[in-house]
Amino acid sequence: MKKIVLLLMVFTSVLSAQESYTVSGVVKDASNGETSFGASVFLKGTTIGVVTNEYGFYSITAPKGNYTLIISYVGYATKSKDFVLDANKKINFELSESTTELDAVLVVAEESEQLNIRSPQMSVSKIKVETIKKIPVVLGEVDLIKSIQLLPGVTGGAEGTGGFNVRGGAVDQNLVLLDEAIIYNTSHLLGFFSVFNADAIKDVKLYKGGIPAKFGGRVSSVLDVHQKDGNSKDFRLTGGVGFISSRLAAEGPAFKSKGSFLVAGRGSYAHLLLKAAGEENSAHFYDLNLKTNYNLNDKNKLYLSGYFGRDEFNFGGNFKSGYGNASGNLRWNHLFNDRLFSNMSLIYSKYDYELEFDSFEFDWVSSITNYNIKYDLSYFINDKFKLNFGASGIYYQFDPGAINPTSETSAINPLQLDEKRAFEGGLYIDGEHKITDKLTASYGLRLSTFTRLGGQPLTNYQGNLPVVYNTTLGIYERGTEQGETDYEKGSSIKDFGNLEPRLALSYQLNSTSSLKTGYSRVAQYIHLLSNTTSVTPLDVWTPSGKFIKPQLSDQYALGYFKNFKNKTFSLEVEAYYKTTDNRIDYIDGSDLIGQNTIETEILNGEARAYGLEFLIRKSKGDLTGWLAYTISKAEQRTPGGAAGGLGINDGKWYNSSHDRTHDVSLTGSYKLNDKWSLGSNFIFQTGRPVTYPNGQYTYEDLTIASFSNRNSDRLTAYHRLDISATWVPNKKPDKKWKGEWVFGIYNIYNRKNAASISFGQNRETGANEATRTSIFGAVPSVSYNFKF
Amino acid sequence: MKTYIKGLLVLITVILTSCSDVIEVDVPVAAPRLVIEASIDWEKGTSGSEQTIKLSTSTPYFNSNENNVVTGAQVTISNDTDNSQFVFNDMNDGTYTISNFVPIADENYTLEVVYNGETYIAKETLIPVVDINEVYQSLDGGFDDEVLEVNVDFIDPVDEENYYFFKFREQGDLLPELLDISDEFTDGNKMNVFYEKEEDDDINQKEFEAGDIANIEFYGVSEQYSNYIRLLIEQYESVGDPFSTIPVALRGNCTNPANPDNYAYGYFRLSQVVKTSYTFQ
After folding, report:
1. By mean pLDDT, which of A286-295, A316-325, A421-430 is the weakest?
2. A560 phi/psi in degrees, rounded to 5
3. What CATH number corresponds to the domain at position A62?
4. In a shared domain, residues A379 and A470
5. Number of Cβ pairs < 8 A linking chain A and chain B
6. Is B255 in contact with A762 (Cβ distance < 8 A)?
């Protein structure tokens, strides 16, 4: 606490007493009234400028004088406005898409690009949904998660599995936020599709490192997804019809033009086709996005957003399974004055899954729920200093599983695994400081706390060892139980606290290039339990506590950034080194299903990852796209520790499942003419680490494989080429109905990429075989999208 | 039960995936290791005096028909309570037999195998098993409600942890089907286990039909063995699937105290077993 007070004093001392005034306002899209996040707002001929926040707000304070204000935003025509700063002023801007006003872009490009280079923020990728929509995808389903995997440092698991990995981190180390609400599972149909409906999304920001102090709770990355506010000018319908699913979104002004709304729905219907084809098993998903906002007055604005998504599986009538996320967020933007912006959020989110086994007459439900209150403030102090600070509190409820018989005759006894509760608190302060004209810094501190709350019993173990090493058999097994302790509701089982410093520096080498460096420490208090190669929807989240310590990561990064040819091209090179303490791994033969005492199945270890990322991007002209290359290493080590023994893999470093030595992606889109545009991507990746058999023997008449060390082999390299073509049939500017056809071929050269290689005995011949499962061969697709 | 939950994930993947093919893969080759298949099976209602233990060595994964039987080893089981010794005879084909073994329920036994100058030791308890209540066929149950399966019902003893192991085999099949189950979620209840076969043209497998005979073996096993066989079955059935656990070196209870790293594969198990068969109507 003392440190924070001290920091505040340092910050306030920066305040200058010069005669200055403030110009502030909101930047929006002229066509639909959507606020613009990340637009540059600049005073021409000076180095004074800011970028708009997630609500489109900017505030610039400068000495009295005559200025030209320049607003630029990728994909939009740059605007400028002359004005006299002799009092505090409010100027709102509306930007039009750049296609029509190419000249304007060229005029001011030089000024606006400086900001991007100057900003100390590194290791961040922002993608607009328009870009994502141009990327060819499997079966024509636009997929945000697959799109970010085209960025350097981001990979995914096998095709058809969910989540993504950032800089060698695990899937559960990503904080995924949809309008600030935590999304615990990002996949539909196990991972074939993602939960984000592109028609409801405005933009996406991925922090791979240098995570601002505002965020905490996950050690690898933050994926910050913003839903559209809804068109505030006109009522619009957007939609699409594809092979797998169809979408429809409605948006328009509301509350007598004091606000707007968006409702978007999406549903798959492939299961109906399967049913028609006589297939009795089925899988389908749907989701719903909602958002509305209301302008109380100039200083106050309310936002309400919600998401609901669900997957349903049905197998021959005997097994059913369903899972999904639900979230809601009420936000209140309040402008204290033209330099102090605030937002208060009340957020709810939940993830649950259920299984129903008719044959065995039981069902199984599990869930994680959280309630979150957040208050964030930005103080635009002067032209050299901006301060962000705030607090948040999250209350979690974990229900790891309840089993209930579904009939009188069921053999199953009811079982409720211990419900767990926890509270996570956060307090942060973070300054963006222009130290000299060339050197800019962002430094902050986050204080995070975590309390594992009572209301459950915990098993005690002999010697406080939930796992012990059996020296005779050479295996890890559960410790000896010694009764249990009951923790009362409201009491604390265990408390944790961490100070998380974040630092980023940017040094401008010249007008087109800069060097950046950063350090960040992040703590993670909740963990996804998964001992399978890929995460599954059935995996359960668990809080830190008596037996599981918070994960703690330190990341160091260094980068070089350069713009070429009037910002037509940009180059980003980044190197990173990241260590994570307290990364758990699972003992040989661990059993997590229905496991009440997870601590008996795990050992505490560490992880490290390092790599070099290159990104060359072309963001102007008829041909746009990027080439990304990453060379990296991700490993972990899990010694026996107090349990005894050498540990997993004899205590030696082993490859993490998401280690990829080489990762290349090339993405391009080309505008051929007014009617046709083409898109393509190529991906090459080193194969996923796997464990292969190193011998065989006969046991119980079966041929049993023996295995080499954990993750010491690799699948064959993964590569594929996708293409797409978009045809806009009738481009009449005055026609309201705008339709487009998207034709695509995924994996055009039909590469049989191994999603997995399984080893087993052919039951007819008895011979051992290696069977490759490749999920997608060449897959053609057609979809139709429309706007009205 | 857990096996079925894991099976569910595999099912989901099967539905969603399209294509699989057999390919050639280079796999690592480990040095050969002794394999001890010491399964002392005491069929209920018999004396259990005749027993066989098999010894072999592990071979490279894709090598078939390699002569890997182990001869010339000394194989002895002793009863830990009365120290009585049972010496097995080397049949020179990898099997070691005895005709005067004395099985006693809940008794502890020690196996000693001396081979190539190394001594391997394993300790286990002989686990009894309850009777089978009923064996019957059905259509509705199982994974698929349009496919015949044979059901085995038995009553789990209440208030104790019990572990069971099933070995099913359709008469004429090359390979058996193994299943492990515990009373973790069903303590004291009537438990049901089924054996169903789904059609698979690739391996010439057909669903059960009238006239088919299913052989059923029902074993009581220790918790330690249950942990071992669960992992063995899991790895046998689904190694490498994206939703399977990362495979691990499977270690049984055959240790080498003088040279721990040179342990043996396999297991020394002592079980009471109920054997029966069912002819589909």
Report:
1. A316-325
2. -125, 130
3. 2.60.40.1120
4. yes
5. 280
6. no
Based on the fold, state whether residues A128 and A91 are members of the same structural domain: no
Structure tokens at A757: 């290689």
Which among A287, A260, A179 has a CA at the least distance from the CA of A226? Answer: A179
CA distance B168 to chain A (A): 11
| CA angle A165–A171–A172, rounded 5-degree value | 145
A627-663 pLDDT, tens digit each: 999 999 999 999 999 999 999 999 999 999 889 999 9
- Number of domains chain A is built from: 2
The Cα angle at residue A184 between residues A486 and B234, in degrees rounded to 5: 75
DSSP-derived pairing of the beta strands B118-127 and B265-279: parallel
Chain A nearest C-alpha distance from B222 (Å): 15
A664 & A713 share domain: yes
- The model carries a pTM of 0.89
- Predicted pLDDT of residue A48: 85
Q: Flag whether A334 is in a domain.
A: yes
Looking at the complex, report in whole angstroms how far the Cα of residue A580 sits from the nearest Cα belonging to chain B.
21
Do A471 and A614 lie in a common domain?
A: yes
- Answer yes or no: is the ipTM higher than 0.95: no
- Residue at token pair 């969910």: A162
Q: Could you tell me if A152 and A52 lie in one domain?
A: no
Residue of A nearest to B9 (CA): A536
State the pairing for strand pair B265-279/B34-43. parallel
Within a domain: A380: yes
Contact predicate A117/A105, CB 8 Å: no
- A400 and A304 in one domain? yes
| H or E stretch at B163 | strand B163-170
Please tell me whether residues A395 and A508 are part of one structural domain. yes
Q: Which helix (H) or strand (E) holds A354?
A: strand A340-357
Task: Give the model's pLDDT for residue B276.
Answer: 96
Interface test with A, best of B183, B241, B253 (most A CBs within 10 A): B241
**Least confident piece of the model among A97-101, A243-247, A302-306, A592-596:** A97-101
Q: Which residue of A has its CA nearest to B256?
A: A472
For residue A770, give the H/E element and its range. Answer: strand A768-774
Give chain B's domains with CATH numbers: 34-127+250-272 (2.60.40)
Cβ-nearest to A707 among B62, B68, B247: B247
Burial class (CB in 10 A: 0-12, 13-18, 19+), B258: exposed
Q: What is the C-alpha separation between B217 and B272, in angstroms, rounded?
A: 10
The domain that holds A151 is classified in CATH as: 2.40.170.20
**Nearest chain A residue to B263, by CA:** A473
Q: Which of B165, B220, B247 is nearest to A711 (CA)?
A: B247
Same-domain status, A38 and A141: no
Rounded to whole angstroms, the Cα distance separating A637 from A654 reads 6
For residue A753, what are the domain limits?
A: 124-477+497-787
Q: Point out the domain boundary residue: A88, A118, A148.
A: A118
Look at A534 and B243 and tell me if their CB atoms are within 8 Å.
yes
Does some domain include residue A11? no
What share of chain A has pLDDT > 70, as a percent? 93
Smallest CA–CA distance, residue B242 to chain A, in Å, is 5
Kindly state whether residue A12 falls inside one of the protein's structural domains. no
DSSP track, A275-305: HHTT---EEEEEEEEEEEEEEEETTEEEEEE
Conformational region of residue A526, where left means phi above 0, alpha means psi within -120 to 50, and beta covers everything else: beta
Are A474 and B178 a contacting pair at CB < 8 A?
A: no
Mean pLDDT, residues A423-431 = 96
CB-based contact B20 A711, cutoff 8 Å: no
The residue among A89, A118, A147 that closes a domain is A118
* Contact (CB<8Å) B60/A705: no
The distance of B143 to chain A (nearest Cα, Å) reads: 6
**Within 10 A of B241 (CB to CB), how many other CB atoms are there?**
24
